[in-house]
Amino acid sequence: MLPLAVVTALATLVFWFPLSALWHQQSEISATTAQIAAIRQQDAALKLQAKSVSSKSAATLLARSQYQLVYPGQSLIQVLPGDGSGKVSQSTGDPGLQPLVSPSSVSSLAASAAGTQVKKHGSSTGFVARFVRTLEFWR
After folding, report:
1. Nearest-angstrom CA–CA distance, 128 and 131
2. How far apart are the first and last CA of the chain?
3. What is the spatial distance between Cα 14 and Cα 17, in angstroms, rounded to a whole number?
4. Residues 6+ apart with CB under 8 A from 90
5. For residue 53, with 0-12 CB atoms within 10 Å meaning exposed, 13-18 middle and 19 or more buried, which class applies?
6. What does the pLDDT look like over 23-65, one tens digit per residue?
7. Distance between CA atoms of residues 97 and 82, nearest Å
8. Three-class secondary structure of residue 125 per DSSP
9. Which of 28, 45, 53, 113 is the most buried (most CB within 10 A)?
């Protein structure tokens, strides 16, 4: 029984440990080979892209289309699409596209937007009256 145990232990030491290490190394080599293949594909794609923009005209086209660059002395003008009727759409939510409001109608617009009436103060324009009106928000 003892000789069989010794032979089994030796066989385990000789075959199991080296084979296990070789198997792990082989799996690491396979993973590294796959990474190298992916990097080579990326390299080939980047070389193709570099070749496609190597000419001056292609580089200029790329600079104009993707980076909005122009030659010195030129101006870049972007025309944004409208709604087709020739007027700017009001549904965009951009306050810069809203029509201008005359200064005389601002107080009536603010009152209608807030749902409150504009409070008219007396004709006292002294310092104390203006100061008290300024501090009305404290009440």
Report:
1. 5
2. 102
3. 7
4. 97, 98
5. middle
6. 889 999 999 999 999 999 999 999 998 888 888 888 888 888 8
7. 11
8. coil
9. 53
